[in-house]
UniProtKB/TrEMBL annotation:
This is Transcription termination/antitermination factor NusG. The lineage of its organism: Bacteria, Pseudomonadati, Bacteroidota, Bacteroidia, Bacteroidales. Residues 18-115 form the NusG-like N-terminal domain. It comes from the Bacteria. It comes from Prevotella veroralis F0319. One of its GO terms (biological process) is DNA-templated transcription elongation.
């Protein structure tokens, strides 16, 4: 429980939106380091996976959920950020509002805050889905009224006879197990 609190304490909503960056390289860690050296905060969703250690015993390590996506907080102007992206030695692409637009798509701070909370690697009843899979899931917009996810919003979806709260942002979606009775429909 103490580690969960540590993760939650590191997630802060400071009102700044985020960029989603698609990578065309396997050097996700190096790209993250590049942006961090430029003074930008980065986020990569991770989960625990069990691997065989050198001694032959299983051990858990944190690994990225997807290898071609990184999120960067918009703490500088678009012009400055564009320059940093262009100077990168890596093949990357910032997700744009549309194919024709040069304007970057920004993920609102409240959506990214909830998404980062839902990506807590200590939570085990969680599923990651692609954007395409998330769009195929039918579900009503809900607000969680009770429990540890109180105040979060998303779509209530059903998978394998269980209910999940689905939070979707460009490139990825995350589903956390939730009980149906703790959710109320969002007012339109």
């Amino acid at each position: 429980m103490e580690e969960t609190t540590k993760y939650i304490d590191t997630i802060v909503d400071d009102g700044l939106p985020w960029y989603a960056i698609k990578l065309f390289t396997v050097r996700q860690g190096e790209v993250r380091t590049y942006f961090e050296e430029e003074g930008l905060e980065c986020f990569i969703p991770e989960q625990y996976v069990t691997i065989e250690g050198r001694d032959g015993k299983p051990r858990e390590i944190l690994r990225p959920v997807v290898r071609n996506l990184i999120f960067v907080k918009q703490s500088i102007s678009d012009k400055q950020f564009r320059k940093i992206v262009q100077e990168a030695d890596y093949k990357i692409s910032v997700i744009r509002k549309s194919r024709d637009s040069q304007e970057y798509s920004l993920i609102p701070h409240n959506q990214m805050y909830e998404f980062r909370l839902m990506c807590n690697p200590e939570v085990t009843m969680r599923k990651f889905v692609s954007s395409e899979e998330a769009h195929l899931k039918a579900g009503d917009e809900v607000l969680v009224k009770f429990g540890p996810m109180k105040g979060m919003t998303g779509r209530l979806v059903r998978s394998n006879k269980k209910y999940y709260l689905l939070k979707e942002i460009p490139g990825i979606g995350v589903m956390l197990k939730v009980t149906k009775w703790c959710c109320v429909p969002m007012k339109k």
